[in-house]
Amino acid sequence: MENLSLSSLLDVIGELLSDEVSIAVSNTEEYLYYLPSKRVDLKIRQGDLVKEGTIAYKAISQKQKVSEFINRDVFGVPYHGMAVPFYDGKLLGGCVTAIYPAYTDGKSVVTVKTNDGWIPVPFADVKYVEVNDRKTYVVAEGFLGTHKNTLQEFEYLLPRESFVRCHRSFIVNVHHIKGIYPDSHSTFVLEMNNETRIPVSQSYSSYFRKLLGF
């Protein structure tokens, strides 16, 4: 245990939580360590200042544990988090922050833009969401439209029991997957029930398999 560095220990802890929870460690002014999860990434870098309005800032300022929701104004994405201050002797040393994705509460539709206006599409009818040429497309049965959200924002909007990120460009509704097949260019290819074939990339393959249980 004497030879295990703090960074190595945090890497191990982060790996245990990496599917859902990001970990950040800061002193009283700046971030010393950050490990993002697959579900939420605040794009924190070592040396970044602890921003006012974050739970890390609040925990350091209040010198106590803070657990709350932070809206997208701070990091560009909403998140839930818990920050706990730590001490070096009697001096406040900084805090450790656990960052969770902000799950949707109450919404049941995606309002998609078309040439004529906007159409509310129930979550259950959405087959997949795709980013292509810097535009986000929502695909439903016999319908395609665009949305202002990024794919990362859709990860927090869509219910996680149905929607899975499988590629940097795709989120799929598992209830619309017709089959899963091996592929030579990515770990798997999904055949959707509208005959579209969608890749599962290497970086998402283990997370995808874990959620679908195979």
Structure description:
This protein is of the alpha+beta class and 214 residues long. It folds into 2 domains: 6-101, Beta-Lactamase (2-Layer Sandwich), CATH 3.30.450.40; 109-212, Beta Barrel (OB fold (Dihydrolipoamide Acetyltransferase, E2P)), CATH 2.40.50.40. 20% of the residues lie in helices and 41% in strands. It contains 5 helices and 15 strands. The chain has helices spanning 6-17, 55-62, 72-75, 151-157, 202-212, and strands at residues 22-26, 31-35, 66-70, 79-88, 91-101, 109-113, 118-122, 126-132, 135-140, 143-147, 163-167, 170-173, 177-182, 188-192, 197-200. The strands form 4 sheets. It has a 5-stranded antiparallel β-sheet with strand order 2-1-5-4-3. The chain is elongated, with a radius of gyration of 20 Å. The relative contact order is 0.11. The mean pLDDT is 84.
What is the secondary structure topology, with strand pairs?
Blueprint: H1 6-17, E1 22-26, E2 31-35, H2 55-62, E3 66-70, H3 72-75, E4 79-88, E5 91-101, E6 109-113, E7 118-122, E8 126-132, E9 135-140, E10 143-147, H4 151-157, E11 163-167, E12 170-173, E13 177-182, E14 188-192, E15 197-200, H5 202-212
Antiparallel strand pairs: 1-2, 1-5, 3-4, 4-5, 6-7, 8-9, 8-12, 9-10, 11-12, 13-14, 14-15
